[in-house]
Automatic annotation (TrEMBL):
Domain HTH araC/xylS-type: residue ranges: 18-116
Protein name in UniProt: AraC family transcriptional regulator
InterPro entries: AraC_XylS_family_regulators, Homeodomain-like_sf, HTH_AraC
Any one Pfam family match given in the protein's UniProt record, by short name: HTH_18
Keyword DNA-binding: yes
Keyword flag Heme: no
Keyword annotations of the record: DNA-binding, Transcription, Transcription regulation
Superkingdom of origin: Bacteria
GO molecular function: DNA-binding transcription factor activity; sequence-specific DNA binding
SMART domains for this protein: HTH_ARAC
Taxonomic lineage of the native organism: Bacteria, Bacillati, Actinomycetota, Actinomycetes, Pseudonocardiales
Length: 147
């Protein structure tokens, strides 16, 4: 039988990883990098990347970009900001990188999404839109729903 104690180093590491994930969720607009995130929990950047991927299935950078793209999707659905304004609002510093990553995650460019999403989100309350319209990586979409 496997027993986890409060002093278990694996549990302590999971607590640190959760702190990193929470920080990314809170500060996604800030210029975060893996080294800064690792310093915040007193781990090396390499160890943080490996442990984060093992715990959450993606690298800290990938998780950060997914959060930024989720927020960008919400702003683009509103329709009152340009793609460039949205890019900078969510913390990206390069429109090209933002557009490329957006296209990878969503399957279409930000400008295409803005046109399509204005109609797609009608009638969905904002509290549900995030869950329903969450970005799905193309390779996850190809695999289909997991039941």
């Amino acid at each position: 039988m496997f027993i986890v104690t409060a002093q278990d180093p694996r549990l302590q590491e999971l607590v640190l990883l959760r702190k990193v994930r929470d920080r990314i969720d809170r500060e996604y607009r800030e210029p975060l990098d893996v080294a800064a995130l690792a310093r915040g929990v007193h781990l090396s950047a390499g160890h943080l990347s490996r442990a984060f991927r093992a715990a959450f299935g993606e690298s800290p950078y990938s998780y950060l970009m997914t959060r930024r793209i989720e927020r960008a999707m919400a702003l683009l659905r509103r329709g009152d900001m340009s793609v460039t304004e949205v890019c900078f609002e969510v913390g990206c510093t390069s429109l090209g990188t933002f557009s490329t990553r957006f296209s990878e995650l969503v399957g279409m460019s930000p400008s295409q999404y803005r046109k399509v999403a204005a109609e797609d989100g009608q009638g969905i309350p904002n509290c549900l839109a995030k869950a329903v319209m969450r970005p799905i990586r193309n390779r996850e979409a190809a695999a289909g729903p997991s039941d």
